[in-house]
Design goal:
mainly alpha; two-stranded antiparallel ribbon; 74% helix; single chain; 141 residues
């Protein structure tokens, strides 16, 4: 499971880096500008693309979070991966709500990140529960 989670964390770093690149793009159309409902440029240049009061792009939080989950996965600290993933999932769902109900525009990088953090959360949960089940079975023996 370690390698799968590291691979998924790497995917998250890549899509977060692409979103960060879009955040700082000043020229031309966004490469992910598909139509009026799918445009990463609009999303990543909106006021919601930064942590309010800090100016830190949300994509930087994504990169940091995925780096943390990758490092924790490397150490097989699956309970900590689960805790970090739950925080990331909650924040990603909050951002998806903003895209759907406030901006009315979706970012493909954000949607990929939401799918990625959802999968990381499910795998970390399954791994953590399996480890707990094994421990309780060993104690019962």
């Amino acid at each position: 499971m370690k390698h799968v989670l590291i691979l998924l964390a790497t995917l998250g770093i890549v899509v977060s880096a692409l979103a960060l690149r879009e955040h700082y793009r000043t020229e031309g159309d966004a490469p992910c500008s598909i139509n009026e409902r799918w445009d990463c440029g609009i999303v990543n240049h909106s006021p919601y693309a930064v942590v309010q009061g800090t100016g830190i792009p949300v994509a930087v939080l994504g990169i940091a979070g995925y780096l943390l989950m990758g490092a924790l996965s490397w150490r097989r600290a699956y309970g900590a991966v689960l805790a970090a993933a739950l925080i990331g999932l909650a924040f990603s769902l909050y951002l998806a709500r903003i895209e759907a109900h406030v901006l009315g525009v979706w970012c493909i990088y954000c949607v990929i990140s939401l799918a990625d953090i959802s999968l990381i959360t499910l795998l970390a949960l399954a791994t953590t529960l399996a480890a707990q089940f094994r421990k309780s079975s060993e104690l019962a023996s």
